[in-house]
Design brief:
Elements (H helix, E strand, L loop, with lengths): L2 H6 L7 H11 L5 H21 L34 H21 L2 H10 L7 H29 L1 H19 L5 H25 L1 H4 L4 H8 L1 H20 L2 H22 L4 H4 L12 H11 L9 H30 L4 H29 L1 H27 L2 H15 L1 H12 L6 H27 L4 H30 L8
Length: 503
């Protein structure tokens, strides 16, 4: 921590030795909500002791209260249990990056697929019905991620990823031969959705096994794959659609997915036993029947929603990702609706994801300094401003190419942080050994939200006129505004009205 950072966060002005001694005496009798606070002070006392002795001691010790969030991670964790760096840890980040390039990178590209299907195989099908394909895909992906998360907690990442890779490859390969709405629903929506869902949870959760202090930065590095995939897949698909057939384009993409996910499976490695509490380590390896029973009993944890912090964090993720997926699905159609070509529409998605590389990594670094929730609130607030002012008031009325490009750049920077910061926010309020379970629970609920949100978005767009799209923009703006409100309530639940708190 720099001198400026120390000055910024010196609200307590007490010596670390006194804080450490006081926390030792009061720990047994402290209110439950303060236990995590004292644990954080105990683990950081040695780092603060030298600087704390030079602070201004004008405030009385008994009138000083330690800030509840002096770390960006769950404060009951022991930092010594996490490598927080090293070759093996960063190989895991690389594996996660490659896998997320497929899982979320393609999610950022589904607008290209939606636009192509709407003009070719499904040209006689309404937008509201076509949206069912992607709504089912997202619902299945997010729902299965719940099972993928708990399977990761119990079985580790490699077995889980292997199953997901098989489903994903087969689903994409079968999609190549689809011609009707029902066939796309079955192959892409369900089979591919299962594969995406199984892979998504472990690829995000494995980062939390290796990083604690640098967790937000590690998540940001891994989720750069989302933007990289969002850059290359629209370009690849656009080129393949023009040079070969749709069938061969999907077959080639399926083999690209297979290679990337195989590399990811080989690179990632879990630390389930190392991070599990000592009392929970099993002497005997559980049988398959016991593991299935564990998966059944622990597949969801709705009781976690009783915690206000997790409840409002989940709602914030639901609203923000519904807006993100809806925009990613229908923005290319908006560009063509205002009079521009398919290649221009696909280019806007590439621009968003190019800028999104910075939008994911920079906020991740800042989140380790000021806290993931603080950064998430800021990024979502600017996303709201971008949607309401640039997209609605400028672009939808002027229909100029300049307004579309400006929106793509600004929106791409601020909104792309959603996927990289959401795991950090969940991890900050969750124990590491149950992160996969909570991650899956959050995204089960999010999947239901996004499913309904995409169907609603398709119904709003209806015939695809500019007036329909204006209503859709208002709909997206309302979703992002609701997300900001939820994250603000979450922050208030954790810190009250204090502003200079790392959370």
């Amino acid at each position: 921590m720099t001198a400026n950072s120390s000055k910024t966060f010196q609200y307590n002005n007490i010596s670390a030795e006194k804080a450490h001694s006081k926390s030792q005496n009061d720990h047994a009798h402290a209110p439950k909500e303060n236990i995590a606070t004292m644990a954080s002070w105990q683990t950081t006392s040695s780092r603060w002791s030298e600087k704390a002795n030079t602070n201004d001691h004008s405030l009385e010790v008994e009138n000083s209260q330690p800030d509840t969030d002096s770390t960006s991670y769950n404060m009951t964790e022991n930092p010594d249990d996490f490598p927080d760096g090293g070759l093996r840890a960063y190989l895991v980040v690389l594996g996660s990056f490659l896998g997320l390039t497929v899982v979320y990178g393609f999610l950022n590209s589904i607008g290209v697929l939606q636009l192509y299907l709407q003009k070719h195989q499904l040209s006689k099908v309404s937008t509201s019905k076509t949206s069912m394909i992607f709504a089912v895909y997202v619902l299945v992906s997010y729902t299965v991620s719940m099972l993928g998360g708990i399977a990761f907690d119990e079985l580790g990442p490699r077995i889980t990823l292997a199953f997901g890779t098989v489903f994903l490859f087969l689903g994409m390969f079968f999609t190549a031969n689809c011609n009707s709405l029902s066939e796309f629903l079955a192959s892409f929506g369900i089979v591919s959705g299962i594969g995406f869902g199984i892979c998504g949870g472990p690829l995000a959760a494995v980062i939390s096994h290796w990083f604690l202090r640098k967790r937000s930065q590690a998540f940001a590095l891994a989720t750069l794959g989302d933007s990289v995939g969002g850059i290359i897949f629209p370009l690849i698909l656009n080129k393949l659609f023009a040079s070969v057939s749709f069938a061969w384009a999907m077959r080639i993409i399926s083999f690209v997915f297979l290679v990337l996910l195989t590399l990811a499976t080989l690179l990632v490695k879990g630390r389930n036993q190392e991070i599990r509490p000592k009392g929970e380590k099993s002497i005997h390896k559980p049988t398959l029947r016991q593991r299935l029973r564990i998966l059944y009993r622990k597949s969801i944890d709705f009781s976690a929603l009783k915690e206000p912090a997790f409840f409002f964090c989940t709602l914030g993720v639901c609203f923000s990702e519904t807006g993100l997926v809806g925009m990613a699905t229908y923005f290319p159609s908006y560009v063509t609706a205002v009079g521009y070509s398919d290649s221009t529409a696909n280019l806007t998605m590439t621009i968003m994801n190019c800028v999104g590389i910075l939008g994911r990594y920079i906020p991740g670094i800042i989140a380790d300094i000021v806290g993931p929730f603080n950064v998430m609130i800021a990024m979502m607030t600017f996303t709201c401003i971008t949607v309401w002012i640039i997209w609605l008031l400028w672009s939808s009325y002027s229909c100029s190419l300049a307004s579309i490009y400006v929106y793509s750049v600004i929106y791409g920077f601020f909104n792309c942080s959603v996927l990289s910061l959401a795991p950090s926010c969940i991890a900050a309020i969750s124990q590491t050994e149950v992160f996969g379970q909570r991650y899956g629970t959050c995204y089960l609920i999010t999947g239901i939200f996004v499913f309904g949100g995409l169907i609603a978005g398709g119904a709003i767009i209806s015939s695809g006129t500019i007036t329909d799209f204006r209503y859709f923009i208002i709909y997206c703006g309302a979703l992002y505004t609701a997300s900001v409100i939820c994250y603000l309530i979450n922050r208030y639940q954790q810190t009250g009205l204090r502003f200079k708190v790392k959370v």
